Amino acid sequence: MAILELSAQDVRKMFLYVSQRMVESKDLLTQADKAIGDGDHGVGMARGFGAVAEKLEGQSFNTVGELLKTIGTTLLMSVGGAAGAVFGTFFSGGAKNLGDAPSLDSRVLSHMLLDGLEAVKQRGGAKVGDKTMVDALQSAAMKSEDMSSAPLSESLSAVAGAAEQGMEKTKEMTASIGKAKTLGERSLGHADPGAISTYLILKFMTEFVTERDAPR
Ligand SMILES: [Mg+2]
User: Fold this and answer.
1) Spatial distance between the Cα atoms of 154 and 151, rounded to a whole number of angstroms
2) How many CB atoms lie within 10 A of CB 185?
């Protein structure tokens, strides 16, 4: 059976899983950032998602929007630097039009990604091709529109695949904003760390849902 939607309580469990896996991705993200930046991305994201896990452990949520806002605020306060602002804005912005939605389905996922993308673009001024997380996120958000009537397990999997493609494309780009821009051509061949994090978050969301989907 395909998973159609997740209740707010299950979305909370999903982000506890995502947080744990993001903390475990610290070294991978550190290496990725060392290749084209100052190497602080892994530590920042691990600290941020560690804080998210602590926050979600002790709280229950009635709506998906309330949960996303809490994640956004926590990341903003704990990741630090530009990444804190960007990923905090992504989650908080993603909650903007969710109203009282009590569960996450493919339509809600698409709102979250499209509004999150818009908020990130407005805040940071990055556009597609600038070698940032926007390259992964825009690809994911566009795919989510196509998949908005599919079961959640199917749309998430397609969306994570699209984020991976967007992330892979950043390898062929030279950075034009952010710290990596000082590297210019030397950033060629390396993916943007924020794009990798964006892909990983969606991949871990998919893993959680797919796990539930497996026959037992
Ligand atoms: Mg950095």
Assistant:
1) 5
2) 8
Q: How far apart are CA 216 and CA 191, in angstroms?
A: 37
The CATH number of 6-213 is 1.25.40.340
Distance 82 CA to ligand 1 centre (A): 8
What's the gap in Å between 85 CA and the centre of ligand 1? 13
Radius of gyration of the chain from Cα atoms? 16
pTM above 0.85, yes or no: yes
Indicate the average pLDDT of the chain. 94
Closest C-alpha among 110, 74, 111, 71 to residue 91: 71
- Ligand 1 mean position to 13 CA, how many Å? 29
Count other C-beta atoms under 10 Å from residue 59's C-beta.
11
- Each residue of 41-94: pLDDT tens digit? 999 999 999 999 999 998 999 999 999 999 999 999 999 889 999 999 999 999
How far is it, in rounded angstroms, from Cα 84 to Cα 167? Answer: 19
